[in-house]
Amino acid sequence: MKSDESLELEVGASLRASAAAPAPDDLVARIGRIPAAQAAAAGAGRRLPVFARAGMNLAAAAVVVIAVAALVVMRGGNLPPGGPPNASPSTPTPGASAPPSASSACGSAASPNPASPNATPEAAPGAPVVVTLGIYSGRPDPAWTLTVEQAAALGAALAALPDTTGTPPVGGLGYHGFAITGPDINAVAYLGMVAPPGDAPRPMKTDPGRSIERCLLQLSRSHVTPGEYAIAEAAIVGPPPAPGPGASASPGPSATPAAPTPFLGFSPVSVTFVAPDDGWVLGKGTCPGGPCAEIERTADGGRTWVAGAAPDAQIFPGPRQDAPGIGSLRFADARDGWAFGPDLWSTHDGGVTWARLAIPGLASGTFVAALETAGGTVHAVVLDGGDYRIASSPVGADDFRLSPVRVPVGAGPVPAVQLVLSGAAGWLLENDRTVVAGARLVDGSWSAWQPPCLDAVGPAYLAASGPTELVAACDVGLWSTPTGAHLYVSHDGGSTFLESPASVPVTMTSQLAAAAPSVIVVGGTDATGPVLAATFDGGQSWAVVARPGAVDLRDLGFTTPTQGVVIGAPGDGPATLLMTRDGGRTWSAVRTTPG
Amino acid sequence: MLWTAVERFAGARRLVSVTGVERAAVVDVQGQDLERAGGARVGTFAELMDRRVIDAAYRYATLMLGNRADAEDATHDAALTAWRHLGELRDPSKFEAWFGRIVVNACRDRLRARRRMPVRIALDPELSSPDPNTGFAGRDALADAIRSLSADHREAVVLRFYADLTVDQIAARTGVGAGTVKSRLHYALRHLRAAVDAETEGRSRP
Fold first, then answer.
1. Do A11 and B5 touch (CB under 8 A)?
2. ipTM of the complex
3. pTM of this prediction?
């Protein structure tokens, strides 16, 4: 006979075990698309019920879509009020008599089929079909409304595809399919399958030629940015042709192997070097119980790696705020290192043993958003209530003390904080879609600092090559009228900045590093996808130096003026460590596995 | 401990985001053009409906419905309902409790629909297989017993011992009196105790 208390504890434990799985990513993505889909529907003049029917019959949905189109067409071509704003030039003429087929989803109209009993006239006019290109995580995906004719053609093409039952793949980072939502359809076209969202086996359509995705890709052209289009195009029809000779000034892009065949089961998420030869990579490894943190160490500049001990923690790329675990790694020297984001772990024996730390004095536990170390001190940016604060400790001791400076978390959806150190100088910059606030380390203490690009309506990224040499790359107008990335240079430690004349050849920045005052590397995306771009003359001219083929770039930085690192994570498959040994001119993939 | 801290943090974050300017955006959500209202509105819904809120809803739905497909649908239904009625939410800081009620109702709707359409729904194999990490005598019997509770009793048990709500909070969330919640918990626990004790005795025989 168990006591009441132990039974209650067991009930709780049993329930937690049964509900251990978090919501699938595609469900989260689908919920994230609700505002776009609903607003599009509202824009079409009525509120639209969007059904989430796991077992829906796509063929029936297609018939309804066709009937919807037919009804509208039969009323003399009246488009819904406020209807689709962007009729693609390739929109087929209503009433074209070519029979629909999968291969011509974009090139022929549906034959009207007004006899369907499934069409409910009340719901029919104005109920649009919204297509969302799944390409981001953490910010809204581009979405647009199909014209009635496009919806009809799509419905016909779907109806013509063979039925099957199965569990379609779910995409990860990068391109992960087109979501099609409308009054009678809720499906994702991805990897040649068209299926309702979910992760259980279910009825679906197979589309081995990926005709639906190709069609939607074609239709997307006027609704997505060139960079977004390029990423989707590369995933659906293969990589775009290599840029011709002369496309970029010397040095030319280094040819990064398209598939560097990393060791199965290890995917680097963070990298740190303390000297040209001495570095560590934190990655996601494969343990008997599932993914786990692994750390590899090199003593010869990345040529060979030895597995070391790692914190017993969940691992994911980059600091997160919604789950316990770690996503980043920094070392100060051969002995002292930290694994963090949001948890905090330290080692003082070169990674042989790790201990979980709590920073005293924080109201809501230890949530590390950023951490860097320089000059014998480690600084951690932590969350305390609604503020970022900075806790600092000597590298050899776990003695974190909080600075009184508070940087309020911005009002936007995704606060992100950067910490940049150079010798005894340091800077903190918070973006929350746009630049929000900053702090600066002078003479060992932090104080409020006005960061650059506060009025840029876009985020800023910082890098330093010396205590007074600070640069910022700002995506000017990213949230209003984008004018691309601009470089701002400070020679007085961030008190004043001057804009560099040449604009940076990326449309959106994600990483910035400075090897020297004149050598600056930007990670970001341009019209073709992710790129590394560099200047070797302090921002007078820029060249694309690598196209890593990765969607996500992390930990771009220089160990010495000539040696630098960056991790490139593709949309699917393991990430790759890239290194430069010539000051950012060429970058090549480095194997990060033992042996 | 850690999770408590996570939740406290997330709560703080959300309060920050719904004070001041954004608060107006939270409440005034109907009839706006996405192009112009744009970022603020989408960001606001995404802000309230963050990953943690979705996970909590999905996990609750998994426990109530017993399979992931239904849990996904119920969670999506609830999110859609929340979006449509966001304008009725007076105090954005109460979003979580408000959305919790919507999730409870979405799961009830699914259970009702299931009764109307008596399809045998296989339990998700991953959900029903014994957990190799627990090796806990009676755990399987307990999980089975929880699944065999009536919907009302399971609802009370999940909200009390999984979501850690108080009796009063459960009453508010499920729309029944506190006395009813207490009696449901009492009878549900008695049922679970019987199942576990039977199992334990069965196993302790040589």
1. no
2. 0.73
3. 0.47
